[in-house]
Amino acid sequence: MSAVSQIGLKKNLVRKDYFLACKCIPISEMVIEPPRDADLLTRAVVYKKEFLTKDICRILLEPATQVYYHAGQFINLHSPDGVVRSYSLSSVPHEDYFLELHIKCVANGKMTKWIFDELKDNDEIDFHGPSGNSHYVSGRPKQNLLLLSTGTGLSPVIGIARDALLSGHEGDIYLYCGNRNASGIYLEDVIQKTKEQYPNFHCISCISEGIIPIGAVAGYVTDIAFTRHSSLKDWQVYLSGSPNMVDKGEEVALKQGAASCDIHSDSFYSVDKSYSVTDADSISQDTAYPAADPELWAALDNGVLMKAILTDFYTRVYDDSLLSPYFTGVTKNRLIEKAYSFSNRIITGNKVYFGDRPRNAHHWMVISDELFDYREKLMETVLREHGLSEEMIGRWRAIDEVFRGDIVKEQPYPKMLDGIPLPLDGYEKITIDASTLCDGCTGEINRGETVRYHIRLGLTYCSGCIENNITV
Fold first, then answer.
1. Which of 68, 103, 131 is a domain's end point?
2. Span 157-161, average pLDDT
3. Which segment of 16-25, 196-205, 267-276, 421-430 scores lowest on mean pLDDT?
4. In the chain, how many domains are there?
5. Least C-beta-crowded within 10 Å: which of 6, 249, 287, 395?
């Protein structure tokens, strides 16, 4: 098999010929077998389970074998009936003997019901991992750190803060803990002890509803943190908790000067992040366009530099084994034209784009956060090579982050036309209620015309292309 298919795997898995199927390019005949649980899972004993609040419990685990990890990474717990859930590590490896998890009870949650009602001290449990890139990055001890959390998102970020302090970090560390009301506050003793021991550690509790306890502040954690720290150039930013907070935090941090490589995030999902093809309400709303940015447009030489950037970027995309399959059948020039018009619409505010918005344009594409990040790193490389300043790169990236929620998903969902979900595969003839452009000849299609629509790819063809049986 190709060596690239084993990059990133643990040494013991490489020795046993494990590989990543998504990266494997066979160089000879292969005989493939399913993975063995014993190779992938680690057994641990529950040393202690205790309740921190009425709906948050702390689990201390003693692994059967040594585990190498960073505070802030996560492990995947396996219940006896096969349910798997990810939980972040609050423990610091060079300070704490046990692996420490903080777990919030989720209504109707299969895993948390088992943990809260059945799991007890001295039980055995399997997990795999650790995984994740959200952890303290050493090497710049004087750099300031900004950490934001909601709910049990406090678990990994307090671990990251402790790891930094125990490693001798000299820069200021600001931790903002967000909760809907005061009942969500926990770990007060740990936080107070850390504040007393390290004068460069600062923690602010943010409460968005109800009575505000002494020492806390009223408001949403993102509003408070980013108002107090409006310039984040050369800062490390850590975000952990609800997806909405993490998404907004990434967007604002980029706008306020943080480099994307210095932003680390960990989203907590209380339910399966998936879409039902019958749930029209959840997929019919397009994300609003962000405000125009005249300074970014000027930095892009009023579009001249942007055209060069997009041409360079999509040339690389079409040569990339991970990204190119999403554009099979679409010409590179056509894609560049669409991307230019869409970016022009966003940055200038001028209504020059008439195609699908990101939610509809990507409706059939199953794209993970990791692949989205991979794509963004490639874009950053191109932006730097074309001389765009770090501030303007941050603004460009912030625009992309606005639409992450429309693009990242675990399964396809139907394209929406006039609020009506369309089937997921095959061709249909429909009458459109909004003007668009033909994906065959690029001509304009007016409202009320009959078109041929490819259900999965979302491609639309005008009457002329239908007559000539033209498809891309």
1. 131
2. 97
3. 267-276
4. 5
5. 287
Q: Decide if 33 is inside a domain.
A: yes
Distance CA 414, CA 283 (A): 8
Residues 242-276 have pLDDT tens digits of 888 988 898 899 989 998 888 998 765 544 333 33
Name the strands in the sheet holding 201-207, side by side, starting at the edge strand that comes first in the sequence.
217-218, 201-207, 173-179, 145-150, 236-241, 263-267
Could you give the CA distance from residue 305 to residue 43 in angstroms, rounded to a whole number? 55
Cα three-residue angle 29-35-40, rounded to 5 degrees: 135
Residue 409 pLDDT > 50:
yes
pLDDT above 90 coverage of the chain, percent: 48
Same structural domain, 77 and 123: yes
Q: What CATH number has the domain bearing residue 353?
A: 1.10.490.10
Task: Report residue 423: phi and psi, to 5°.
Answer: -60, 165
Q: Which residue from 39, 22, 21 is spatially nearest to 30, judged by alpha carbons?
A: 21
Task: Note down the domain range covering 301.
Answer: 280-407
Q: Is 439 contained in some domain?
A: yes
Are residues 214 and 296 located together in one domain of the fold?
no
- CATH code for the domain in which residue 122 is found: 2.40.30.10
The percent of residues in the chain predicted with pLDDT above 70, rounded, is 87
Residue 236: give its domain's CATH number. Answer: 3.40.50.80
